Amino acid sequence: MSNTEPKNNVEAKKKGGKIVLIICILIILALIGVVIYLLLNKDGEEQGRRNVVVNEDNVDKIIEQMQDSERVADGYYEMTMNSTWYFENGTAASDNAYVENTVTNTNSVYFDIVRSDTGETIFESPIIPVGSHMEGITLDKDLDAGTYDCVLIYHLLDEENENDISTVRVSVTIVIEN
Q: What's the whole-model pTM score?
C-alpha cells in the first residue's frame, strides 16, 4: 500500500502540471485574440470613416466631423512662430518675428515676452483671434545691441476673451543688431 501512494502523488503532480500548462496556453491564446481583434477593429473604424458617401441628408454632419477632427482639443494650443527674432535696432520693427494663432486652435490668445535674465516684460501683444497672425513686431522696451534669451508666454483665453484658461511658455531669442 505504501508503494501506490508515492506513485499516485507523482501522477497527480504530472496531471496538475498539465492543467496549469493548458490554462497558461489558453490565456495566451485569448490575449493574442484580443490584440488581433483590436488591431483589426481599429483599421475597420478608420476605413469606415473614409467610405462615407456625402449626400444632402448628411453633408452638415460630415462637415462638422471634419472640422472637429482638424481642431486641437480645448485648452491646448498649436504654435506657429519662429524662435529667433531679429531687430535692426532696439526701436525698429522686426523683419522676421512671426506669431500665428492657427485655424486649428479653438481660442484667442495674447502673449508677453519676458527677458529670462531680468524678468522684465519687453512686449505685450494685443489679442490674436483664431486664424490671425502678427508680424512686423516692435518691442515695447528699447534694448541695446545684443542677444537676449527670453520667454514668450501665450495666454489662452476663454470664449469671451476675458479670462485666461491656460498658459504656454516657449523660449525665444531676441537679437538686436545695432
A: 0.59
